[in-house]
Amino acid sequence: MSESSPPRTAPSRTRPVGTPAGGVLLRSLTGLLARWLPSRRWYAGKGRPPGGLTLLSATELLPCGTTGPQPGLLHLLVRVGPPGPRIAPAPGAVPGDADGEGDGDCYQLLLGVRPSLPPHLADAFVGTPADGPLRGRAVYEALEDPRLLTLLLERLRAPGALGALRFEQAPGAGIPSGLPGRLLSAEQSNSSVVYGNSHILKLFRRVSPGINPDLELSLALTEEGGTRVPPPTAWFEADLPGTSEPVTLGILQPFLDGSRDGWHLALSSLQHRTDFELCARDLGVATAEVHTALARALPTGVLRRPQLEQAAAEMSQRLDAAAAAVPALRPHRAELRRTFDAVAEHGRRGGRLAAQRIHGDLHLGQVLLHENRWSLIDFEGEPARPLAERRSPQPTIRDVAGMLRSFDYAAAQHRDPGPRAQRWARLCRDAYCRGYAEGGGRDPLEHPELLRAWETDKAVYEVLYEARHRPAWLHVPMAAIRRLAEEAAA
Ligand SMILES: Nc1ncnc2c1ncn2[C@@H]1O[C@H](COP(=O)(O)OP(=O)(O)O)[C@@H](O)[C@H]1O
Ligand SMILES: [Mg+2]
What we know:
Blueprint: E1 13-14, H1 20-36, E2 53-62, E3 72-80, E4 105-114, E5 125-127, E6 138-141, H2 146-157, E7 160-162, E8 165-169, E9 181-183, E10 191-195, E11 199-203, E12 206-207, H3 213-223, E13 234-238, E14 247-254, E15 260-261, H4 262-272, H5 277-297, E16 301-303, H6 305-325, H7 333-348, E17 353-355, E18 367-370, E19 373-376, H8 387-390, H9 397-413, H10 419-438, H11 448-469, H12 475-489
Helix pairs in contact: 3-5, 4-9, 5-10, 6-7, 6-11, 7-11, 7-12, 9-10, 9-11, 11-12
This protein binds adenosine-5'-diphosphate (ADP) and magnesium ion.
């Protein structure tokens, strides 16, 4: 079979974990994976070797033990122990872990296996096991191999179980066969493969039991008849021993060909001095429509005095933790606390705040403009937060605040982040809030003190993130912190 021809769906099997075969397989791969994982963008313990590996499931999507030229495809779920000491800290970074890696993160790996690697796959090389069932074979990142990508799509075309894995499809999915796949090279916390410009497969890397909100919310919005989210075409999950809920592993969705994300459009508007207010307004409308549909489709709640007081206390705690790590925050602590007090005060005055499922990590990079219409993507929430928290009802104002912060980031990223860029951000922020109210959402400016609190909470998170990972960007959220503190003082 030639490199470009679509592979046949070959017999596959699962190597039961806990059997001698599973143990031997893992032992033979442990050293290679421990060296390879820290270099992956999606590995949370960046730059640090994993503490230990446990195999949770191993499934041969394509046989790996044959002697012919046919590549094998091995699907692994591995639990990675707490990482060891950092190998190379970012220059000027403060110590700590913003990515929430901890005891036993679970990762999804897709490994190709060949007798030897052709030159075009040299960069994908993981290693050659010295013993075990794959002894002497080249093991590599399967997603770099176009031939294996096409095979993976074939697997998604065939619903059903395979070992611990279960493949599902939406009714009438109609996934074409033999589409060529290419791995997106974007800086991502997951891995995405585009198939023939008609579909995109997102493979979650760090996974945990329970439906991933990206799948849960996309399915719920599709059932509601929403058109602001690419509807899931197919997806796959794993049922792991000892867990009551399946682990979501990947989602295939229509690819919005020719779309551009909000971040690049915003930067282009700043650079070419073109209008973005109309876009920002439409984005507000789209956000409100998605919120309305989510409130209809999934459980909602109400935050009253105790919950609002607790929310304010948690914001203050996050501020204290961030200020302990980032001295620049300390002079502003008193004003920022006052901002958070406004949330508790709202509750004390008998005010309420509706809670519902939200996007959870809304920013300009999570919205795509396709044929003049905004779609929202990536409903995973903030991957660093626990799944149970991400799946709980929250105030919609959190999403609004996230998008407002994003306009600020875009303005600061512009090569001239002076008054003109700041005015651009202000106009976009106002237009977005206006659109949100026009689209049926509750006017975010009705309670500016609440909006300020959630924006401040987000900016505090950004300060800690930038201080740890991108110290050169720290000035962006710090400028917002100063502005928000001044507003609170006034
Ligand atoms: N349905 C889609 N159509 C077109 N491009 C998409 C689609 N879904 C995702 N993308 C592209 O892939 C990128 C990453 O997708 P996303 O779901 O945000 O993954 P991650 O969780 O890794 O951030 C997006 O920024 C966008 O450029
Ligand atoms: Mg994303």
